Amino acid sequence: MLLEKKILSKKNFIIFFFISFFFVGINVVKDYGVSSDEYQHRFHGFINLDHVGKKIFPKTVEKYKEDKSYPSFDNYRNNFYGGVVFNSSAALIELLFKIKDKKNQFLLKHYLNFLIFFLSLISFYKIIKIRFSNWAFPLIGVVFLILSPRIFANSFYNPTDLIFMSFCIFAIQYGLIFFKNPNLKNSILFSLFAALSINMRIMGIIIPALIYLLIFFYLIQNLNLIRKYFYPVIISFLILPVLTIIFWPYLWDAPLENFINSFIKFSNFHHFGGAENLFLGNYVKSTELPWTYVPVWILITTPIIYIFFFLFGIFKITYNLFYTKYKDNEKILIDIFFLLFFFIPIIAVIVLNSTLYNGWRHLYFIYPGLIIITLVAIEFFYNHFKNKRIKFFIKFFIIINVLYISFWMIKNHPHQYVYFNSFAGKDIKNKFDMDYWGLSYKENFDYLLENDSSDEILIWNSSAIKIFYPLLSLNEKDRTRIIKVKFKEDKFDAKYWITNYYIDKNNYDEEFFKKYKIYKTIFVDGEPINTIFRKKL
Hints:
20 helices, D-Maltodextrin-Binding Protein, domain 2, alpha/beta
């Protein structure tokens, strides 16, 4: 009876935790602005929806299309993009509910973004439960994922990297279930979510590849189980490519050729001819990045406590691989799966010299692997040391760091996307890209609109971010009040000057401050991420 009460109590606490986080997330969705990447992905969703609709339901398309016009799918330069399922589903919901105002259209996607991330947290909890026997570890893992400032912020507005990460979590969960219990149902579910992850980003193919590899090595040591796995694996092999093609209209006409073409384009996608990245104080072309780019970004944007345990976790898994009889140990095989899942994409990006920009967001999908490896280290420390004082110290160390990160995230809300740990040093603004998507504009626009009652507010934007995008976070009435100065030679005619310092090479020197004064600045850890200057009278 006492045991049943304890189990019920733990279960209720976990349910309460997830429900509480859900309501916190839903409540703060509106605090985040529209990123400069979202407009393109919304457009991509409508083009694919229009293309699919014309082929399957042409009359219905004409009914809902109204006066909208889209370029031909075949002539659309980014038709090879993935993410069709998410972006086109969001577009369909927007049409069905007749959402007209731009602010509400993007707010809808933000709610969908967070909903999928929330569901992936439940899935991540179940993944950890497969690997760890201690009931607390799944909850710790989920807390670590939530309390990763950049991941948390991106979960509200990033329509590619975070959705891809979420779909990878779904695919891994059902992949591990399939590994543990190979049957027709699990084969289909795994293939379905693996296809969805591939649809988001072609790199998602790593998940089925590693799951099949996991099964292969397991069967080498357990030959008597080959018959049990044979048919479910064959079925998965057959279903996966079919579902991938169905979800991705670009593959319909020439599946293999276009799949290869998409992989080539994605591995070296030239963003606007090669975007610039501020890296270690220098502007570097996205096509000419040093091999250290991704490792450095991971090191300076991940909470240090996670980095500490992660590095030890790598050592522990490697030790187990060579010094433990792992042939019957499913846990060690799962650990190796996550080790490969984390490192293979990084190595691939370095070897292929892939085009990257905006930090390491393109590789956020491997972050759950980092958390799992972190938990491997915590499990070792907790189980290895029997002394109660040492165990208390480990718990205390984790709790103090978790509380610190929580406090930081609350204090700097909603700007968690510019989190850097102490490894980044000082003067971060001049060493690394910070608000590369222009999220900080929303707060300063809101302030400006509240404190300037003019019908028209003339403003000059000196950032590389096009002001058009952050204006989408405002309602139509407020958007029309803010008027951007069109020509650079007329910039000093503007009443206000705004910048988020992204690839902003203006000199804010004595000459500048003869004309303008600081009106409002948003600071994060003492670093300015957005400033409005007002013209002196």
